[in-house]
Amino acid sequence: MSAVCGIFNIDGSIVSSEKASKMMDKLKIYPFDSTSVYLKNQIFLWCGIQHITLESRVEVLPVYDKNMGLALTADAIIDNREELFYIFDISKKESMSVTDSELILMAYKKWGYDSPKYLVGDFAFAVWDERNRELFCARDHVGARTFYYFYLENVFCFCTVMKPLFVCDENNISLNERWITDFLALDGIQHEFECNETIYKGIFQLPPSCSMIIDNKGIKINKYWNPIKNVQPLRCNTDEEYEKAFIKVFAEAVNCRLRSTSEVGIMLSGGLDSGSIACIAAKSLSKYDKRLKGFCSIPIESYKNNKSKYYVSNESKYIESLKIRSDNIDVCYCRCDGKNSVTNIDAFINMFEQPYKIVQTLYWYNDIVEKASQSGCKVLLNGQFGNSTISDGEFMIHALTLYRNFKFTTLFKEIKAFSNLKKIPSSRVNKILLKAILPYKFRKSIKNILNKNFDRFGSVPVNPNLIKKWNVAQRFDKKFYNQLTERFLDYYESQEYTVDPLAFSHIGAIETKIALANGIIIRDPSKDKRVIEFCLSLPSDQFVRNGQERYLIRRSMKGILPDKIRLNVSTRGLQSADWIQRLEPIWKVVSSELENILEHGEINYYIDHDKLEKGLIQLRDGLDEKKSDLIRMILITLVFSRFIRSFHNDVIYL
């Protein structure tokens, strides 16, 4: 993969070579195998390439087509190469030397602004058309690669990461207060609420599945992919036909991601998603006498499991069954001894260029990426998005769908089957379903009456004054965020969340930046555009049937995935189960740092000082896992305060 950047002087003035050099200098922190520049009059394009695929070793970027007057820079891996070879009439012999960027340029020549529609993969690219004096930029369907930009008067700058864009307006770099307010107000791990904004004023991100045209008329952004609107229902005659069609699409999504100059790794858990991906990948790699390197996070040896037996904190017994099924899988179990949620905060802030909220998982997630890179992996697979696609299938979503479609006989049968499978009374299921059936507004009104003192921002550190200033409550209401009343979705409503650009952007930013820093690429077959479209095309009863959740993948992976994983309904993996116990030895240090921060008042404008002060008092005698929300709030505040300090230092030294 690559990182890209560029400057377009829209008024026709010559790009400053000094400004271009400053942008490139800020990208020297990343381990590139080659870098190159295209600088001509009003346009500057740059690319730093990391050799991930065999074709990338001969890739030349930026590339200029003199006949068409087109220049391209791209951060891309294209997965539907065979399809494109057929369309462009490229022979098998010729295809061996065709790079992904050449395919992008061919696509642009043929389809122009519509070209992203015909590309499958992880990409962000910019095409300069010198004849029409316009720049065309695009980001892939699921936002797997980042694309940030700055636009002011007659200057447009873009980059894979944000800090190089500081040079475009060095004297006016400031923070986006609305973004910060949303970040501190969101109850969960999500970083942003406005998909096109960033933490920096004037620096924006191109949303997933969007393209943009920049010329002397300004900027025009177009959304080129809307699967909810355009995907047609798939109707097969039998379950076997659905399974066969699924395996075909899913296997292709896995296999096209195995292109690598070196080793292929995978983040493993004991669940259906990563296990299914691992089995398919291992089988394909075995044909070339290659091995799959697995990496799995497990708790520290001193961990005391205080959770229900339903939750499994150490999933190694399930992963060992994968090794028995596929004898070319090697597994590294990562305990991350000595690491916790405050390890390397400053380094992570520098990596992400902003504060972050994934405090429970980041230390081990990054540890796995580092270990994978050090062991020679260029591609690291995961199945993070699988719950929304390949292993979709929640009973209550299906039950509500049946009710709203008036399929009452089927609904009663499903309730009985689910109750028997889970060994719980039908009355308990009916009670939850009744709650789901009742209109949301009605349930919300009742909840509010019974919980008059409920504070929807009670577990987040944001300053109440900023909530009012930026109209947070009303904006969050549009997406039902930070609500006391649970919202139940039917199958069609849940599909809207599957393709939510906010979720795509959140994942894409984290994975792009961690991977870029380690000279590796993180790839998720369960988030493949074709897999998403296929899963959206299926009827609800392909995902839940006879009370069995995640029905499609359990059926389809028979004989491929070990039954120990495939048929497991009695337990569920719990990653980061030990995150609080890891903090116990150093909590006094953490608490002391935050006390000093609150005392000096450097972030008091942004946070609820009294709430945090009371929170520290509650934890003065030690950590309590029942207060995990409070611990998270304190850690997020600590991360945010470190970011503010880092930002002020960055501005001083610009």
Automatic annotation (TrEMBL):
- Reaction catalysed by this chain? L-aspartate + L-glutamine + ATP + H2O = L-asparagine + L-glutamate + AMP + diphosphate + H(+)
- InterPro entries, per this entry? Asn_synth_AEB, Asn_synthase, ASN_synthetase/amidase, AsnB_N, GATase_2_dom, Ntn_hydrolases_N, Rossmann-like_a/b/a_fold
**Keyword terms of this UniProt record:** Amino-acid biosynthesis, Asparagine biosynthesis, ATP-binding, Glutamine amidotransferase, Nucleotide-binding
Q: In which pathway does it act?
A: Amino-acid biosynthesis; L-asparagine biosynthesis; L-asparagine from L-aspartate (L-Gln route): step 1/1
Which GO terms of the molecular function aspect are on file? Answer: asparagine synthase (glutamine-hydrolyzing) activity; ATP binding
Q: Name one GO biological process term.
A: asparagine biosynthetic process
Which residue ranges does the record assign to the Glutamine amidotransferase type-2 domain?
5-217
User: Which residues bind L-glutamine per the record?
Assistant: 100
Pfam families (UniProt xref): Asn_synthase, GATase_7
Q: What is its EC number?
A: 6.3.5.4
Report the PANTHER family cross-referenced here. Answer: ASPARAGINE SYNTHETASE, ASPARAGINE SYNTHETASE (GLUTAMINE-HYDROLYZING)
**Protein family according to the UniProt entry:** Belongs to the asparagine synthetase family.
Q: What protein am I looking at?
A: asparagine synthase (glutamine-hydrolyzing)
Source organism of this protein record: Clostridium scatologenes
